[in-house]
Amino acid sequence: MDNRAGEMQVLVEAADRGSFSAAGRRLGLSPSAVSKLIARLEERLGARLLMRSTRAIVLTPEGEAYVGRARRILGEIEEAERFITAGAAATPRGKLRVSATVGFGERCLVPLIPDFLALYPEIELDLSLTDEVINLVAERADIALRAGPMRDSTLKARKILESRRVIVASPDYLTRRGTPTSPHDLARHNCLRFNFRRAMDDWPFIEPATGASYALSVSGNLEGNSGSMVRRLALDGLGLARIARYVAEDDIAEGTLVPVLEEFNGGDIELLHAVFVGHDYLAGRIRAFVDFLAARIGKQPGPM
User: Which residues have CB under 8 Å from 10's CB, separation 6+?
Assistant: First the structure.
């Protein structure tokens, strides 16, 4: 691709300074290089832009028109660069598009938004909650907050949270159906499951006496596509749910959900990362948001 802005700058400098030599000294080019660049520009445009005499350079009418427009274009380029440079060094600003899982978004992220916007009032936050794995580029998202292992090595990720998974049920459900005392009791229970592709119907356990790990297939008459939805179904007494503890933490504290089979819990961890397209010059608004979440949520001691 032609460096048209560079050619414009060479022509403008030659017109302003009145000679190829002076323009070359200003731009770090030889007079012959200046002459060749201008000749290439004239050839592409099919028009003579300047006339050379023994003493000076004189712009043709076409050259005057072109230089006038070139000055405006170069000025806009310089202004755009000043804006981005100032934005990177100063207060983060601009539109920030964030996608988060429903459970994390509702339970952890949304309550922090007022504090974030108070710290960065010049950021305009566009927040979407979904448990579907999105393509950041296609969806034009700056950051995705996603649970599970990282699969796309082209993206950058920063761990925001790790949470132990827990099996929970409402007191009403346990009163009606009984509290399981062994993972094998789950065969007689309604187990709430997930319906997205990466979900598994097997629930992992550990044998307390030996430390041996194993998995059991579970079944039930309800599936959901988010931790928040499955939590809601469990609160309504419809079955046992296996979800990240941060999704159910408040319910457990209030007694509206009760952990079961904790002695068989293998302690497997759900990781949640902030995922973004990384490069050396990360936008200030993206860096500010990721740093904010890492500082605020990372303060919570141990796996939730």
Answer: 23, 27, 29, 34, 37, 38, 41
* Averaged pLDDT in 10-residue chunks for the chain of 304 residues: 79 86 88 89 89 78 89 81 61 89 89 95 92 73 83 78 93 97 96 76 90 92 87 96 91 96 89 80 85 80 44
| Nearest partner of 248 among 302, 154, 155, 168, judged by Cα | 168
Q: Are 165 and 193 in contact (CB under 8 A)?
A: no
Give the domain CATH number at 63: 1.10.10.10
Domain that holds residue 98: 93-304
| Sequence letter at residue 181 | T
Whole-angstrom Cα distance, residue 295 to residue 156? Answer: 18
Q: What counts of helices (H) and strands (E) characterise the chain?
A: 11, 13
Q: Report the CATH number that the domain containing residue 207 is assigned in CATH.
A: 3.40.190.290
* Total domains in the fold of the chain: 2
Length of the chain: 304
The pairing of beta strand 223-224 with beta strand 191-194: parallel
Whole-Å CA distances, 191 to 147, 182, 198, 202: 21, 14, 17, 11
Helix axes 4-17, 31-45, angle to 10 degrees: 120
Chain position carrying tokens 């949304």: 110
